[in-house]
Prior knowledge:
The chain has 119 residues and is α+β, with helices and mostly antiparallel strands. It is 18% helix and 40% strand. The strands form two sheets. It has a four-stranded antiparallel sheet with strand order 3-2-5-6.
Amino acid sequence: MAWRHLEIVIERAKELESVHRFQSLKPYPVVCICDDEGNYYYDSEKKKPVDLNGRSNPEWGALFDFDIDIVEAQQRQLYLIVRLESHRNVSCLGDKFIGKVVLALENCLMILVMLMTRN
């Protein structure tokens, strides 16, 4: 199997709109790798701590790392999904969704392989 180590760093977000009516924004990133049916490649998603000071301009410097089988990623059409959520003070309501970005992992891995073959 052709395994590659993939590191994703989420530095910051800018000018996020508040998704709460009665509390300030407390955003945090969530990253997962899923197939096109929503099944996790790993057992779960990875989360980083809330930025309590940043509000609409949070800074995390959050590192997420994964080991990916390139062949399986191409066969299963895996996607890297980065979501932003905001922590709610009332835990029974769950956290509030802000937005997400979905990237086809095959495209990311092809770029990685091209860069590695150059060296």
